[in-house]
Design goal:
Layout (H helix, E strand, L loop, with lengths): L1 E8 L3 H9 L1 H5 L5 E6 L4 E9 L4 E14 L3 E10 L6 E13 L2 E12 L2 H4 L2 H28 L1
Antiparallel strand pairs: 1-7, 2-3, 3-4, 4-5, 5-6, 6-7
Length: 152
């Protein structure tokens, strides 16, 4: 399943890049991300909780920063295994930052998600809606992070 979308952040592109490259700050914005452990600057693992319309799924997820073009583009790969369901997911995600203005950044993202086992039986439509909802929540959380930083 492929998902492609974008959202705006009211912050300069360089500031958005800084947050996206800080795994701990970024994790605080990801809906359902718990217990993040950074093993290096490019590898991390986390417990994730994903809420769909019908159930809550807990995952152990491992992520790798595959490539980064300074200030422009990030490529990440994740593998996750549900704790109580058979199956797993693999996700490849690309993020491209685009300067919309001096104080606004457009975040373009593309995700290729593959699921196996019982996880796959949830279906693309249900998961696509969940991903879109999570992406919107993530965008709101990143914006909130910038607003809190400005108040300091």
């Amino acid at each position: 399943m492929k998902v492609r979308d974008s959202f705006m952040i009211n912050a300069p592109k360089a500031d958005v890049w800084t947050v996206f490259m800080d795994v701990e700050k970024l994790a605080s914005c990801v809906p359902g991300c718990e217990n993040l452990v950074a093993h290096s600057d490019t590898e991390y693992e986390a417990d994730m909780v994903v809420k769909t319309k019908f159930m809550t799924i807990k995952f152990k997820a491992n992520g790798v920063l595959v490539d980064a073009v300074e200030g422009e583009e990030i490529k990440v790969e994740m593998v996750g295994k549900p704790m109580k369901l058979a199956g797993l997911f693999k996700a490849k995600m690309g993020i491209l930052l685009e300067e919309a203005s001096a104080e606004n950044t457009k975040v373009n993202y593309e995700m290729d998600l593959q699921m196996t086992g019982r996880l796959a039986t949830l279906g693309d439509i249900l998961m696509k809606g969940t991903i879109t909802k999570s992406a919107n929540e993530f965008a709101e959380n990143v914006q909130e992070l910038f607003e809190k930083e400005q108040l300091k």
